[in-house]
Design goal:
The chain is an alpha/beta fold and 444 residues long. Helix content is 43%, strand content 15%. The longest helix has 18 residues. It is globular.
Amino acid sequence: MKTSPPTLAEQLAATARVVAAVEQGRSLNDALPRVEARLRPGVQALAFHALRHWGEATVLRAGLVERAPKALPFALLGVAVTLLLPRAPGEEAPTYQAHTVVDQAVEALRLLREPQGLAGMLNACLRRYIREQADWFERLAQDNVSRWNHPHWWVQRLRRDHPQQWQGILASNNRAAPMTLRVNRRRVSRDHYLAQLQAQGLVGQAVGVDGIELARAVPVQQLPGWMQGDCSVQDLAAQQAAPLLLDGAGLAPGARVLDACAAPGGKTAHLLECADLDVLALDVDPQRTDRIHDTLQRLGLKAEVRAADAGQPAQWWDGRAFDAILLDAPCTASGIVRRHPDVRWLRRPDDVAQLAEQQRRLLEALWPLLKAGGRLLYCTCSVFKAEGEQQVAAFTQGHADACALPSPGHLLPGCVGPAVDMGDNVSGGQDGFFYALLQKQATP
């Protein structure tokens, strides 16, 4: 039997649950899979839109409501009011008539089984905003959080770290990222895959070395050869890891390579697509190692995969030195806000220092495992210098045998910052990332 399409009220109710979960400290990756399958695409679109405007929503809610109601009705008010905001130029945002948003938000409150006494409050708040929009715009422009839709501490750190580019980074964070593919060069050439896309009515543009940026995002099942392993979804910035580590390294077939924090396995797979290597892929979370296995199986690649803490080599290392090490260290994910709009609202100021200490611990633990003459590629998907430039500067100052090789440094979202070997064929730009390539010098 055919099911009717979900109503906006149903989607608003489910989105309120998701956003309330984020406000309580849970990630979208945790909250969205709990949404009913038929609602999930619409709820994801609404949640992404709401969280990209959550600074504005926070200010508006505080001004519209004298006393905040319970978490779910308050989240619903925030989600609904973001649908009444004017669309920014080029913004891919859900579009509804104002009266539809108000009516469906009130209906969503009923679906949430919240006290119907709150319906009048919700209705009055939304209608008041509609009547007084011009006054609210002025208030939003004066508040730092609502103006940039990022926490105040985040904005301040970016201004300090990137005084010339901070505004471009924040603006880029509030736009949807392009869908970028990495063609599996072991199976198909990029030109051939572009022709396959065109045959299926999908427009793509060659970017980077193995990448294709799609004109519009599609479910992966619609990609030609997806199940056969012809391509993977991977941002252009992340696609630089394997070439940076391998190009010019002179590794022989079967060279031992460690991917120290490997899940979900995209960079592990790219290493194996580029060269015949003996790869050990680690991740501290056993459930996440399952994703590495799934990734490699779909692509027809093989590596040794273990659940282990890379920072505790005594628990897993067999004593044989590695020819190369990839350390994609845990970080704030401040460079991938375009794809994970909840990150900015989940992080706290002291997270940066805590994660920087974890990164330092991993670097110290893994450096002794690298052969003399070998390379370690340190990377994070962060734009904060404490997790990139400053981290590596401190490490090289403390290790006389660590020689910094040419590498991109900080890549900034939307190509507003430095980029290496990206060419002029980039349209949507890359995520924020940091890369530092270190070579181990032989000790006298």
